[in-house]
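User: Predict the structure for this protein chain, please.
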Amino acid sequence: MNPETLRQPIIEFLNASYRLPGGQVLLKNLNLTATSGETLVLLGRSGAGKTTALKLINRLLDPTNGEVRVDGRSTVDWDPIELRRHIGYVIQETGLFPHYTVEQNVAVVPRLESWPAERTRTRVAELLALVGLDPGGFARRYPHELSGGQRQRVGVARALAADPPILLMDEPFGALDPLTRSEVHREFQSLEQRLKKTIVIVTHDIGEALLLGNRIALLKSGELAGIYSPKEFLRSGEPSASEYVARIRALESFEESK
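Assistant: Here is the predicted structure, written as structure tokens:
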């Protein structure tokens, strides 16, 4: 049997929709599943519904129709605090507390969970090392003393602090310069393989989607246009997917012409 068929559904969108109080529909009848240990990419233009879908997972928003389930339970049946501590969350600008040191930022959730001080210090050191930051050199620094790539690494470490089974990432590398982004991409690929968590990444960058995702869910105007493996995406005839592929081919042609 294919190992993919043995994976359990961890996040499920079941005809999930979200509309603003004024009636504008941001997400319509989304049916989508993220399984245990996979990285699912939500790809699309600005306004496609990607971030709305992400926020439905950790109850920053509740669906106005349909249902979203996490570990088999509807999100509206979860206590919001319990649900969010079950899920790591990384955003583009990391959201680090500027008046906290790196160590204090990473330790936020363990302290809320009343971990013993020594266990917390050990966990912080483990995670900083995991994301490529020397604990001795970085634990006492403040966010303003870090580069963009270093702050993003700290944001990932903080999201992983309590070892949540799910990690949500909203344009996590979008603010980085191209060279730093490539470096962080390589490190993240290594983390994916070691951690085996269920990860959902929002991006509009097709290269990032192909590089990091096991599957790519393409959203357009709040609806699911298709879901593909990276290889299937490159062969897709769906018009929105073809636009992304054409951009990649154009870049390849430009490089060959030089």
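Residues 239-257 form the longest helix (19 residues).
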